[in-house]
Protein 1
Amino acid sequence: MRPVDEALIVIDIQNDFCPGGALAVAGGDTIIPRVNDLMAGFGTVVLTQDWHPADHSSFASNHAGKAPFESVAMSYGMQTLWPDHCVQGTGGADFHPALLTDPAHLVIRKGFRAAIDSYSAFFENDRTTPTGLDGYLRSRGVAAVTFVGLATDFCVAYSALDAARLGYRAKVLLGACRGIDLGGSMAAMQAEMRTAGVALED
């Protein structure tokens, strides 16, 4: 019996985040069999998908003289600049072909506003503009959320922190995630999640 009040949130398992992609996470594709197996155990399954326009402000290519992984000040705070990735309608933005998508009840596309990036499944990077996921989960009676996917220290962590802030029981299965670890971000974000009350399990 699948618990109706628990949701699995599968974060950004897209071609550009997997080996060979524009912003590949090492071993990103290795988690897919476990993620697929997990889907049957949840009453609600949500997939998130980075969905950027080509002129997105988080792309280093749209900032003269800037290189990927440098930071710039945006109206909502400091923003890491990335290689162009998950551009709308491209193969890189597609879900990895090994990922099961039929079990998903909802696909949340994020990062489609050119002026602001969106790591979290719940809010864009201003931490106030909602994606609509919170309302969807509450309307389905979801109280607990489990996160898997890519990347641990960015979109997974930001999503889990927002879930905890919104009052959900939040859990991250680290063994079903892979991270970038940009300047020690893995350790920093895991510590931040623990402090916020997010359960970290393998």
Protein 2
Amino acid sequence: MKDKKIVTSPSYVIVKQYMGRLPIYHFDAYRLESSDEMYEIDCVGFFWGDGISIVEWADKVMECLPDEFIKVTIKILGKTLRGVYVSYKGKRYRNFMEEVMEKVKCRK
């Protein structure tokens, strides 16, 4: 078994990189004041690079995001219960999302 690396929120850094089959760029926009700060770290270069970008608090930097993306929202429904809502924007992810919906029990 390969060593597993625990992935945590970047917290005090804007982006953290994890290496795997594809690099993962994990952004935390919580402390950003504007989209300008995301542009300053060349977010576009990350988004259009060879890896996967994950953006926490993406609502704060929506204008930086690509035209097409997958959105995952986690809501607290109870002390130990969470709701996970997945949606997408753009045609690029339509087939992927249809496959996911076939494989897991979910509601439209």
Protein 3
Amino acid sequence: MYSKNIPKIIIARLPIYLETLEMMHKEGIRKTSSKELGNRLGITAAQIRKDLSQFGEFGKQGTGYPIDTLICELKGILNLNHVWDVAVIGAGRLGLAIAQYPEFIHRGFHITLIFDNDPELINTRVGDLTIQDSTHLVEIIKKSNIKIAMLTVPASSAQKVAEELVKAGVQAILSYAPVTLNLPTDSVQVLHIDPVKQLQQMTFFLD
């Protein structure tokens, strides 16, 4: 088990390393170096070596990294050695798009449940899924032993739904709701995705 005190910025770079290594492997490349990997990502070789050193020794100096081995190591660090079941809460346009996005299963995640409180949506089909009544969210998620949820509900209901997810035993919430969730950080990981805020950061650099 690795230390939970490793800076989140380092953890955030690991999936980027993994994705790039998997692309290189598909290209038929079997060994790489921190310099080559850094050139592809626009990150210094020193930073990559520093990041990886948080989790042990990988490769040997002067010989580089065997890509397949490093892929396995990163999957182990990120707990991606098995597929995680995920619940989507909110069957609006965004929730439906997420539920039907085919790449999740190839990246270690399987959308197995989707919920909403709209009577017109409940019991309707979304691909292989049936939209379930969010009134029964806690019992269904708890029974299914799901630890990850994606929150695509309006801001006005996000906090209440997030609290229900914690009651259900969810330990990681990816929230698209444009509001800060107040949850016990020692028992649940929360990551916010707000495209508007991201765009506002980008416009700083525009003329």
Protein 4
Amino acid sequence: MAWAADNIQVNCIVPGFIDTALTEAARRDVAGLEQRVVERTPAGRWGKPGDVAGAAVFFASSASDFVTGTALPVDGGYSSFMA
């Protein structure tokens, strides 16, 4: 909030479970992880790097000029899932 008057926006992307080389071992080695993530994620899948890229492009573009102090979940609905 302190930098908004200087036209500096501070936001963050909060990625969910994304299918990357870093998560490959966990998906393989942690029993049931793949199924638990898919079942809990309303989108019914793990995210792809491109899913996060879209949010990054938005924040880097002028389309987000009036957005500041925001944490944007990119998680297929995982964080809003109610059991």
